[in-house]
Amino acid sequence: MIDQPGTSVPYAPVPERIQVGGLDLHLDGYRVFASGESLVLSRKEFEILYSLARARGRVCSRKQLQAEVWGDGTHTGSRSLDFHIRSLRVKLGDPGAIVTVRSIGYKIGVAG
Fold first, then answer.
1. Which CATH code for domain 17-108?
2. The pTM is what?
3. Which residues bind DNA (predicted)?
4. pLDDT in tens, 61-75
5. Are 59 and 106 in contact (CB under 8 A)?
6. What is the C-alpha separation between 106 and 23, in angstroms, rounded?
7. In the chain, fewer beta carbons within 10 Å around the N or the C end?
């Protein structure tokens, strides 16, 4: 398609962004900043953190997180989510940033 004089190009949508506590998550490019510093996360780690941040302190069940991150029909090992949560806690530098709610799931632990 050739641009004609006087025509406008539609604007790209504003990228979705969530801020909670000291975390700043940008859906475009899967970027995360903690207290202003860029973090390098895997795509799965980002998707887990994004789901928790969207819930803003409400508990996300393990089943819900697995469905959102891996898809409803995808079977993941029972420890896959635990592995990613553990890795996220290390990368965030705060073990309390993600809180385990025993027998239910997880929630974001930073004030926001």
1. 1.10.10.10
2. 0.80
3. 15-110
4. 999 999 989 887 666
5. yes
6. 17
7. N
